[in-house]
């Protein structure tokens, strides 16, 4: 009988709790029993070459581990296992540590696939390797400093000072974006939304008018930094410098994340 999956990448975090380590061992044992080739890597040490020849990525840990594992996924499927359900929300995970029998069933082909939209980021003309699952933040590394940038959206440009801009997918819309005043939307909706946090409204200068909006799949939003230092762009947890004359373009990725869920 042909195998559903030929090669698996296991991504795990550094926790050394008994239940986490036990879950990791159980997954490896199940793959070995089924003679499915696998490699494993810590979530903080991932590289593109780890994904070569892989048709399934299994994330073991919490949502942060899943998000890191997802960044370099292209056409592979991904499955999340919450190894510590008593400590981790596991919002993005399909299985819990005590559901290994469902993993067995999934490996036999009994599953469904959902698609979560992601964000593509072009920084100074270079497409970043990571595709954001939750959100992209354009701002500063210290929250008490104002973010300074020129925003370019829907053929309008203006210079702003604010507490930064959040661009989100539907997956990320229930987190930071919602806390900043945005409304949730579906993880599979082919659109992004953005919101400017705490815009500075001067008497003469920096009267911001581009404060929020929707970015459909055929459009993008652009920023040019006007800060001398301390500016950043974050792609989920990944951080890049973003200072004077740096530019970033943010748009919907054409490669959604294909997530395995139970049938």
**Overall number of strands:** 19
Low-confidence stretches: none
Helix content: 10-25%
Average the pLDDT over all residues and give the rounded result: 95
- The shape is elongated
Which structural class best describes the helix and strand composition? mainly beta
Overall CATH class of the largest domain: Mainly Beta
Tell me the Rg in angstroms.
20 Å
Beta-strand proportion: 35-45%
Estimate nothing, just give the exact number of structural domains: 2
CATH topology of the largest domain: Tumour Suppressor Smad4
The largest sheet, given as strand count, sense and whether it forms a barrel, is:
7 strands, mixed
Fourth-tier CATH superfamily name of the largest domain: Probable inorganic polyphosphate/atp-NAD kinase, domain 2
Topology as a string of helices (H) and strands (E): EHEEHEEHEEEEEEEHEEEEEEE
- Spatial gap, N to C terminus: 21 Å
The number of helical runs is 4
Give the CATH architecture of the largest domain: Sandwich
Topology:
Layout: E1 7-12, H1 18-33, E2 37-42, E3 56-61, H2 63-70, E4 77-82, E5 95-96, H3 100-107, E6 111-116, E7 119-123, E8 126-127, E9 135-140, E10 147-153, E11 156-162, E12 165-168, H4 176-179, E13 191-196, E14 212-216, E15 220-225, E16 231-235, E17 238-241, E18 247-252, E19 257-262
Parallel strand pairs: 1-2, 1-3, 3-4, 4-5, 4-19
Antiparallel strand pairs: 6-19, 7-8, 7-18, 9-12, 9-16, 10-11, 10-15, 12-13, 13-14, 15-18, 16-17
């Amino acid at each position: 009988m042909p195998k559903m999956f030929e090669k698996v990448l296991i991504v795990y975090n550094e926790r050394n709790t008994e239940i986490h380590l036990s879950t990791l061992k159980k997954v490896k044992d199940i793959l070995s029993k089924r003679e499915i080739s696998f490699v494993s890597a810590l979530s903080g040490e991932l590289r593109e070459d780890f994904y070569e020849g892989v048709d399934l990525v299994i994330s073991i840990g919490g949502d942060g581990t899943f998000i890191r594992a997802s960044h370099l996924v292209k056409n592979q499927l991904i499955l999340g296992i919450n190894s510590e359900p008593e400590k981790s929300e596991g919002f993005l995970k399909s299985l819990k540590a005590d559901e290994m029998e469902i993993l067995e069933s999934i490996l036999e082909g009994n599953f469904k696939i959902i698609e979560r939209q992601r964000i593509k980021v072009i920084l100074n003309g270079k497409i970043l390797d990571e595709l954001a699952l939750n959100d992209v933040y354009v701002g500063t590394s210290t929250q008490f400093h104002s973010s300074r940038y020129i925003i370019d959206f829907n053929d309008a440009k203006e210079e702003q000072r604010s507490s930064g801009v959040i661009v989100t997918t539907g997956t990320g819309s229930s987190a930071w974006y919602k806390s900043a005043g945005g409304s949730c939307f579906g993880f599979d909706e082919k659109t992004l939304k953005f919101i400017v946090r705490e815009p500075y409204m001067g008497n003469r200068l920096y009267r911001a008018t581009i404060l929020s909006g929707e970015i459909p799949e055929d459009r993008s939003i652009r920023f040019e930094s006007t800060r001398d230092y301390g500016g950043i762009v974050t792609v989920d947890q990944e951080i890049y410098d973003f200072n004077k004359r740096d530019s970033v373009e943010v748009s919907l990725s054409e490669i959604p994340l294909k997530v395995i869920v139970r049938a």
